[in-house]
Design a protein that fits this description.
By secondary structure, this protein is α/β, with parallel strands linked by helices. It has 11 helices and 13 strands. The strands form 3 sheets. Strands 5-4-1-6-7-8-13 form a 7-stranded parallel sheet, sandwiched between helices. The chain has a 4-stranded mixed sheet with strand order 10-9-11-12. The chain has a two-stranded antiparallel ribbon with strand order 2-3. α4 links the parallel β6 and β7. The longest helix has 22 residues. It is globular.
Length: 363
């Protein structure tokens, strides 16, 4: 079915894991299971059909370098699990706006290159899908990029908590331009949010009343350093909290739930540690309390989900489907237009893939 031409906004740890994965999982049999993705072959597209043809960043250490080199350039500090050959794709100077937070400004120095013609590059390289990996809190920068994406008629996978797919105005813009979006705020393979959601749903389904709950996260990458600036954290807390409370039938008082990144511990590098506690009341009013700790490498944990989201976005492009994709957004993202339980969202994605594949086969 051809290649999926992809552009990446923000060449950080998440981009590193994605690019490594594309070059690591090649020529696999369609029936071989791969950790972190739903299907080796998704609607006719394989992992190695994803081709990065453009990348944008503002860091002087990355702009001008080949993507294969930039993904391993500091302050990136994620796990290296694959060698990436020279790609012949230079990192172009992107738009800054609010993309550099107060606490990362000493690590990320703005390149003195002029901002590239983003729309022109997207058009010239026939980009199918643009992945937004900007730092949390990059509200103005994200919306500036969206205008370039819409003008170039590209699909979008929005991995950060700047609300686009879930907002009527932006959904309408994508519909008007005839292109799809999967968003908002990527949900990792087995991350803090999906774990908290599933445990919350378990309490609900088994009839246990949830009285109090928290989720505390900390890590050593620039994402956690950036989120020490609490003003940039507002949308992230809304996204993560809403994702969990959507699994509660009667909701919960805001004073009895706390979810959000808590601190930055440099020696953890791209590892994230998450602590979850749920306090509840069961039969006869007896107390029931649950605590768990989750440790992950943060960026690889989301890369496989992005691989699937990109392929779903391309399937939608192929079929002329525009606007926010309900199933993929609900399953892959924390803040979709409509929340569903994860088992229902997964079935919606499977149906979306099957329907698209059946139409393609019929043609």
């Amino acid at each position: 079915m051809g290649k999926i031409k992809v552009a990446i906004i923000g060449v950080g740890n998440c981009a590193s894991s994605l690019v490594q994965g594309i070059h690591n999982y090649v020529e696999l049999p369609d029936d071989e299971d791969v950790s972190g993705i739903m299907h080796t072959n998704l609607g006719g597209y394989r992992i190695d059909d994803i081709e990065v043809v453009a990348a944008f960043d503002i860091d002087e250490n990355k702009v001008g370098k080949d993507v294969s080199e930039a993904i391993f350039t500091q302050p990136n500090n994620t796990l290296k699990f694959a060698d990436v050959p020279h790609m012949g794709v230079p990192v172009e100077r992107g738009m800054t706006h609010d993309g550099v937070g107060r606490y990362v400004s000493h690590l990320v120095k703005k390149s003195n290159h002029s901002t590239a013609n983003i729309e022109g590059i997207l058009r010239e390289r026939d980009v199918d899908v643009v992945i937004n990996y900007l730092p949390v809190g990059s509200e103005m920068a994200t919306k500036w990029y969206v205008e370039q994406i819409l003008n170039a008629r590209c699909a979008m996978v929005n991995c950060i908590p700047v609300f686009l797919a879930r907002e009527e105005y932006w959904r309408g813009r994508f519909e008007e331009c005839g292109v799809p979006i999967v968003g908002d705020d990527i949900k990792s393979q087995v991350g803090a949010t999906i774990t908290h959601r599933v445990l919350t749903r378990l309490f609900e389904d088994r009839g246990v009343e949830i009285l109090n709950t928290y989720q505390l996260n900390f890590g050593g990458n620039t994402d956690f350093l950036n989120m020490l600036e609490r003003e940039r954290l507002v949308s992230k807390k809304i996204s993560k909290t809403g994702s969990v409370t959507s699994q509660m039938e009667d909701g919960i008082d805001p004073d009895h739930i706390h979810i959000g990144p808590s601190d930055h511990v440099p020696w953890l590098q791209d590892r994230k540690w998450c602590y979850i506690r749920i306090e509840g009341r069961s039969f006869g009013g007896a107390p029931i309390n649950l605590e768990c700790k989750l440790e992950v490498w943060d960026s690889p944990n989301s890369a496989g989900v992005v691989v699937d989201a990109v392929r779903c976005a391309k399937l939608a492009l192929d079929r002329g489907i525009s606007g926010a994709l309900p199933g993929p957004s609900a399953y892959f993202m924390k803040s979709p237009p409509h929340q569903y339980t994860d088992d229902v969202a997964r079935e919606m994605v499977e149906s979306f893939i099957t329907d698209a594949a059946e139409i393609t086969d019929a043609e």
